[in-house]
Write a sequence for this structure.
């Protein structure tokens, strides 16, 4: 029996953990079955995807369906049923039941829940080609649970080559947020630590570039999380490890350990969603928000872990004002990436059942994004959607970190700041154009022009630009006075060096000599006020900053700088 097991991933570098579990279960329960894993992407040509699946006249095609690929899965199933009437179709994953309903009466078998927990009747019916419309099973309710890593040695050189590897050290979530499909079942299963270590050792042997833990709340048991982190750091690999964490579950021991993690090795995805207490209560999100925000701040201050923090727009009880406060709270933490997505009313979630009572209206097809509710009329949601887009474009990169740090230090009202910036972006048609660093820098220069601290911020923007490694100043960041032009500053320094004013350059020529120093550096003079703001000087004097070609070992890997002594 020939079975194709299909995942339509978001991009090539992703892989699908479920596929490997399905393969193993099929081979265990139906000896003699020939399985083929097909990892495709939603961006591939539809027709070519179809040809790949129809080729060889398979007996069955298994799909894994999620919200973001379900339209395409549904279309493929319809066309496959027309073209290969004898081929059975089985669909699993979070969106399986929705697809099953949409396709009825087209024959398609839905597996709801976990493949590991499906009973023997499924495999018997599969072999006899008389599958029923629905099977189900819950791993968390199985009496003798054993959750093994589904990867085989050969997978790393084939299906997983050049892709992110996904790994679960636990299954289930201790929380029950009302908008989340994971909340349908209560309980968490944690694999024993020795098993986790043995499985991770197998994966790390192949030195993957990225290993993503899919545990819904990786640090729900802080001591266990710490033990896994410590284990990972004993391996000499350059792998980036990604974890979904709860921000209020950290111990001092964890912070102490995280200080020792080299830059670029850990990445945390942190679900905050809102800091408005009535909202958190309404969606059943259990979190100490004061501790959570403080912990994110502490993690950001370490400067070595990329922090991706999430807010959801359109939650119950969230008004424009309270969303603005949630945004400001999150911005103040210094998290590197602020993801602000629209609430999706996913079928099967508790919030989707309560939606009518809260006057929710959402899109009728995946991903079911919210359009209006009783706390936000559509026009407000629309405005905040573009607000979020504006923040994501300007903040979620390495272009302007000193500017954002300045706003944080000054306790600027960032909700107002970005609302005003949004207005300028809309006037300039920003969202229809390419959001390049140059374009965004130009808009920011225009935006700060009338401000009292405009001249200082212009210097901060120059600093951020040069820290990204540029070796020129674009027109909007030009300095006016001729003697302050970068080339003039460099020439003057060179003459001082040639004249033997060695005190000025003490120790700086050691690495490659004077010529190397001047060849590789970019020099610009900054005011004392700006240098104080940047934390580079404590006095009033103007100083030259040298921008080096070397990069820092930090999240943004910006270029190093040296402040030259007064001259
Ligand atoms: S949103 Fe996250 S924490 Fe909440 S139930 Fe879902 S997986 Fe668990």
């Amino acid at each position: 029996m020939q079975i194709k097991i299909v995942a339509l991933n978001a991009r090539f570098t992703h892989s699908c953990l479920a596929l490997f579990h399905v393969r193993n279960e099929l081979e265990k329960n139906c000896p003699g079955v020939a399985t083929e894993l097909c990892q495709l992407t939603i961006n591939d040509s539809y027709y070519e995807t179809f040809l790949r699946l129809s080729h060889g006249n398979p007996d069955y095609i298994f799909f894994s369906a999620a919200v973001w690929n379900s339209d395409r899965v549904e279309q493929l199933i319809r066309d496959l049923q027309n073209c290969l009437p004898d081929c059975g179709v089985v669909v699993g994953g979070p969106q399986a039941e929705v697809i099953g309903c949409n396709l009825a009466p087209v024959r398609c078998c839905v597996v709801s829940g976990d493949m590991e927990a499906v009973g023997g009747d499924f495999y018997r019916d599969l072999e006899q080609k008389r599958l029923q419309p629905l099977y189900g099973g819950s791993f968390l309710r199985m009496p003798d649970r054993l959750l093994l890593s589904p990867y085989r040695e050969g997978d790393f050189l084939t299906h997983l080559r050049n892709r992110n590897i996904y790994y679960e050290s636990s299954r289930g979530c201790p929380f029950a947020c009302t908008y989340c499909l994971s909340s349908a079942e209560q309980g968490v299963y944690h694999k024993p630590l020795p098993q986790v270590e043995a499985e991770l050792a197998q994966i790390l042997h192949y030195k993957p570039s990225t290993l993503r833990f899919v545990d819904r709340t990786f640090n729900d048991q802080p001591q266990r999380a710490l033990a896994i982190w410590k284990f990972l750091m004993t391996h000499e690999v350059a792998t980036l490890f990604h974890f979904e964490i709860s921000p209020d579950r950290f111990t001092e021991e964890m912070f102490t350990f995280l200080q020792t993690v080299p830059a670029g090795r850990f990445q945390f995805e942190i679900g905050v969603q809102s800091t408005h207490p009535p909202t958190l209560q309404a969606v059943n999100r259990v979190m100490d928000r004061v501790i959570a925000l403080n912990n994110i701040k502490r993690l950001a201050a370490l400067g070595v872990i990329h922090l991706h923090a999430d807010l959801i727009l359109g939650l119950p009880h969230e008004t424009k004002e309270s969303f603005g406060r949630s945004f400001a709270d999150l911005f103040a933490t210094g998290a590197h990436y602020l993801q602000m997505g629209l609430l999706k009313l996913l079928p099967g979630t508790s919030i989707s059942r309560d939606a009518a009572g809260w006057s929710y209206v959402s899109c009728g097809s995946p991903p079911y994004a919210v359009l209006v509710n009783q706390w936000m009329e559509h026009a407000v949601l629309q405005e905040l959607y573009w607000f979020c887009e504006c923040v994501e474009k300007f903040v979620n990169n390495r272009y302007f970190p000193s500017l954002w740090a300045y706003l944080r230090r000054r306790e600027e009202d960032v909700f107002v700041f970005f609302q005003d910036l949004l207005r300028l972006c809309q006037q300039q048609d920003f969202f229809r154009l390419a959001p390049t660093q140059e374009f965004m820098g130009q808009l920011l220069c225009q935006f700060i022009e009338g401000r009292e601290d405009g001249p200082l911020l212009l210097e901060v923007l120059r600093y951020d630009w040069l820290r990204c490694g540029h070796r020129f100043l674009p027109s909007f960041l030009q300095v006016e006075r001729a003697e302050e032009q970068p080339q003039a500053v460099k020439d003057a320094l060179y003459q001082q060096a040639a004249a033997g004013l060695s005190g000025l350059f003490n120790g700086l020529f050691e690495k490659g000599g004077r010529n190397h120093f001047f060849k590789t550096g970019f020099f610009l003079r900054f005011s004392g006020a700006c240098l104080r703001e940047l934390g580079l000087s404590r006095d009033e004097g103007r100083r030259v900053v040298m921008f080096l070609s070397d990069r820092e070992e930090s999240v943004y890997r910006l270029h190093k700088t040296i402040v030259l002594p007064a001259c």
